[in-house]
Amino acid sequence: MFVLFCFCWWSLISVFVALTDEIQSVSVVEGNSVLLRMDVTEIQDDDNILWKFGDDHFLIAKINRDKQIFSTFDGPDGRFRDRLKLDKQTGSLIITNITTEHAGLYQLQIIGAKWSSKTFNVFVYGHLPTPNITRDSSQNLSSSSCSLLCSVVNVGHVTLSWYKGNSLLSSISVSDLSISLSLPLEVEYQDNNTYSCVLNNPISNQTTHLDISKLCHTSPVSLIVLVSAVGSLLIVAAVVMCCICRKCRKTVTAVKTLEEDRTDSSKSRKPKSKANAVYQNVPKKR
């Protein structure tokens, strides 16, 4: 009977602890340290404090101030080796150089004059890269707008968004790790609005502002018109030059013909004989 009573009492205590257990979310950037804080300024000598991790609730730290026990454990797979520290006054747990494999549930149990339990849900986020905005190389040249892509690589648990001023235009979110994202945007070539691409997670963000004049400096349609106009001008210039050349050739031919006619005319006129010129006025001998 006594054993059954103890079992029932322990079950009620467990239910009570489960019902009063609170969950606190904690977010941290990979590589930093995080403090899981107990809500006391000083632990009691008769308190037994246990820190557990994961769904299997394996023990990672233990405190018994009365017996001067302040122990940390590496965990079954060694993921916490050289990463755990204990505050000997408050019993708080410090995780240093945290990585994504340390994300999850941490349970604090205080067994003493008063039973209490607290759970921390730790989220670990990687460093965010800067979004890269490029011109869409697959854009149809006949399009009247400029197609752009905002891209990031090797990201997880993030949202990628396009903004026009402070207004959200479009966004895409992922919860996977190490994935690549890209988000398209089309703008007019003469658009004077301010656009930006933002990559964010719950604790940080990175922004790249769009320089339309740099990426969308020439409209494909305008370029085609410009090329056509230049081509037409070249054709007109060629025709004019051809006409001028033909006219010049005609002029030269006419001049040559005239000179030849003059030459022929001068040859046809025979000069007077010098003998006749000498003896013409000499009187004949009688």
Automatic annotation (TrEMBL):
PROSITE patterns on file: IG_LIKE
Disordered: region residues: 259-286
Residues of the Ig-like domain: 129-213
The keyword Cell membrane belongs to this UniProt entry's keyword annotation: no
Keywords, in A-Z order: Membrane, Signal, Transmembrane, Transmembrane helix
Cleaved signal peptide residues: 1-20
SUPFAM superfamilies: Immunoglobulin (SSF48726)
Pfam families, per database record: V-set (PF07686)
Residues passing through the membrane, by range: 223-244
Protein name in UniProt: Ig-like domain-containing protein
Species for this entry: Onychostoma macrolepis
